[in-house]
Amino acid sequence: MTTPEFDGKVIVVTGSSRGIGKGLATYLGRQGASVVCAARTVEANTGEFPGTIHETVDEIVASGGKAVAIRCDIGVPGDIEDLIAGAVKEYGKLDVLVNNAMTPTNAPLEESTVDMWDESMRVNVRSLYLFVQAATPVMKANGGGSIINISSGAAAHEVSAMMPAGYVIYSVAKAALERFSSAAASELRPLGININALRPGAVRTEHTTEEFGADFDWTGWQEPEDVGPPVAYLAQQVNTDFTGKVLDVSGYGKTWGV
After folding, report:
1. Mean per-residue pLDDT of the chain
2. pLDDT tens for residues 125-141?
């Protein structure tokens, strides 16, 4: 069911071939947005996990929505520029950017390498800077926009059954994502652009299923599309004071989004 708030809105969702990104793309597509699905995976059976951006687009279109697939490796500056330009070429503008794609580096600190560290910073942190630089002039020309950065409880490095030890590098990257979001807000606010970070909580995805096993007790975990409503709320925060925040999805409808 479409909603008036998203009629004509153009939303880029990175990492939308599977997992949370696919859930967000399909949810936003059903709300009436024109969705640009971005990820590296464009052909089936070529990645570690199933799913392609073309399959995500097909699901959105089959439900009556509008979507287009654009391949993007967020570790490559040229790909980021091409993605933003491609969205504008296809739909004429860009209203919302959801930075969801990431690399979940998992290695005990003693066994980690500097190459792992550099790759995590390149993909998980540098890409934020490049995306905001590319999206800002487009959103500014359109009178504003919303940038939503998908974080993780790992940013606080809260070791638990849902976030076991071994994610130090990933935790640092997500902490940087949150700090970047809050720091950039003051500069983007005068341009009508809101930027917020969202911790989605425990979500059952292809990756977490592989890590914990299909027989794991998934009680209390969400499905990818469950993250859709809070992201939709943040997507509507354009040229408002609701910016620079680090939010937990568990507070949606309780401490925020009400």
Report:
1. 93
2. 999 999 999 999 999 99
Half-sphere exposure of 191 (CA within 13 A, CB side): 22
**Is 170 in the active site?**
yes
Q: Which residue, among 185, 183, 201, has the nearest Cα to 193 in the 3D structure?
A: 185
Q: How far apart are the first and last CA of the chain?
A: 21
Structure tokens at 216: 């794991």
What is the reported pTM? 0.94
* Cβ count near 113 (within 10 Å): 10
**Average pLDDT over every residue of 120-124:** 94
Q: What is the pLDDT of residue 162?
A: 61
Tokens of 186: 């003051």
SS3 state at 247: strand
| Three-class DSSP category at 36 | strand
Q: Rounded to the nearest 10 degrees, what angle do helices 168-188 and 127-141 cross at?
A: 20
Tokens for 52?
């392609």
Q: Where are the beta strands (DSSP E) in 65-124?
A: 66-71, 96-99
Rg (CA), the chain: 17
Strand-pair partners of 71: 39
Alpha carbon distance 100, 143 (integer Å): 24
Task: Please tell me whether residue 81 adopts helix, strand or coil conformation.
Answer: helix
pLDDT, tens only, 136-181: 999 999 999 999 999 998 898 766 666 667 788 999 999 999 999 9
The DSSP symbol for 243 reads: -
- Write down the catalytic residue from 27, 170, 233, 252: 170
pLDDT at 43: 65
Residue type, 94: L
Question: Please, which residues have CB within 8 angstroms of residue 42's CB and are 6 or more apart in sequence?
Answer: 52, 53, 54, 69, 71
